[in-house]
Write a structure and sequence with these properties.
Length: 240
């Protein structure tokens, strides 16, 4: 009977040891689980909101790339429009220049038809101007003569002009040679610009100028005379 009680006491001791060991192991497992859970939460708090390899990260990158692509496309479109506008502007300037040159050629042609007597023996009255003179009441008459390209010989011409206007309510003519008491004999080749200062009398209202150029006959040159009438409104300089 004594042995039975001793054996029972040993079994109780062993049972107590096993209970303590099981409790210890369970406690360790619980501590490990709690520690792992805490570490996982801490890692999530410091981890990026969306990892590059995650679905949300991919969507974010796709949206950013799409936005950048749209911005780049918009800038490329603006650049293309600017380049096209610049190209069209240059083309317009080029067309206007060509059109202007065409008009100048047509104007020169029609002038030659309207003024057939402005040229003789290769000499042409290229232009006439009336400008303000150096002295009060004085005016400067400018006559520009040109020679045809086919004419290469030196020419001798005489230039004169009649000033046509109103004086004392009557039509009056004043001759350049008589006003200046000088003859204008000119030798030139290719072109010549003649400037003459003249003072018209008081009370004389100038209306027109009749320019006369006489070509002296020479070897190979028949000679002749050309006249051209110019309205003051067409030849007077601004401010004169």
């Amino acid at each position: 009977m004594l042995n039975y009680h001793r054996l029972l006491d040993k079994l109780k001791v062993i049972e107590r040891k096993k209970r303590t060991s099981s409790t210890y192991l369970i406690t360790l497992v619980l501590i490990a689980f709690i520690t792992g859970a805490l570490c996982h939460q801490i890692w999530l708090s410091f981890a990026p909101e969306a990892a590059p390899n995650s679905e949300s990260g991919k969507r974010k990158l796709i949206l950013e790339l799409d936005l950048q692509a749209k911005t780049l496309a918009s800038r490329n479109l603006a650049l293309t429009i600017e380049q096209e506008a610049n190209k069209n502007l240059q083309q317009m300037f080029s067309d206007q220049l060509i059109h202007q040159k065409s008009l100048e050629k047509e104007l020169s042609f029609y002038r030659s038809l309207m003024v057939p007597d402005a040229e003789v023996e290769g000499v042409m009255i290229h232009g006439v101007e009336l400008n303000r003179g150096m002295l009060p009441g004085q005016q400067q008459l400018r006559v520009i003569l040109t020679q045809q390209q086919k004419r290469q010989a030196k020419l001798t011409v005489t230039v004169d002009a009649d000033f046509i206007g109103i004086q004392n309510d009557q039509v009056s003519e004043l001759n350049l040679t008589k006003l200046t008491d000088k003859k204008y004999n000119i030798d030139f080749k290719y072109f010549h610009i003649m400037d003459v200062d003249v003072t018209l009398p008081d009370g004389f209202t100038l209306q027109r100028i009749n320019v006369k150029v006489k070509v002296k006959p020479a070897r190979g040159i028949k000679g002749g005379e050309v006249e051209q009438v110019y309205n003051i409104e067409d030849i007077i300089a601004t401010g004169t």
